[in-house]
Amino acid sequence: MDHDKSENNFQEQVSQKEQRKLKARREGQQSIWQGFGVFGLVGWSVAIPTVLFALLGIFLDGRYGGKQSYTLAMLAAGLFIGILNAWYWVDKKMKEINEEELSDE
């Protein structure tokens, strides 16, 4: 009885792997370019807020300069917001991938 269960489980695992390989062949290059697109999206989602906040800090230092450095504070804030933004996009993409895998099964 245990032998039948383990054999069915093995057949199910092999079937799932075969379906994933066939899907990867169908999608081919598209999935590679999608991967690069995600990396680009993550990079820009960190870079843009960091640069914009640093520019705002430079502006504030020029206008209200003093002992504190607005540039450094705004750079750190922009980086933090950018990292949160990147985390959001990566988390969203991972959920999409998990949903695809569940729907394929």
Which key features would you list for this structure?
105 residues; mainly alpha; 3 helices; 92% helix; elongated
Radius of gyration: 23 Å
What is the helical fraction, as a range of percent?
Answer: over 70%
User: What general outline do the C-alpha atoms trace?
Assistant: elongated
Assess the beta-strand content as a share of residues. under 5%
Number of strands: 0
How does the major sheet shape up?
Answer: none
Low-confidence stretches: none
Please provide the ordered H/E string of secondary-structure elements.
HHH
Mean pLDDT metric: 82
Distance between the termini: 25 Å
What class do helices, strands and sheet pairing give? mainly alpha
Number of helices: 3
Question: How does this structure look, described?
Answer:
With 105 residues, this protein is mainly α. It has a domain at 42-105. It has three helices and no strands. It has helices spanning 2-27, 29-64, 70-104. Helix 2 runs antiparallel to helix 3 (70-104). It is elongated and about 75 Å long. The chain starts with a helix and ends with a helix. The mean pLDDT is 82.
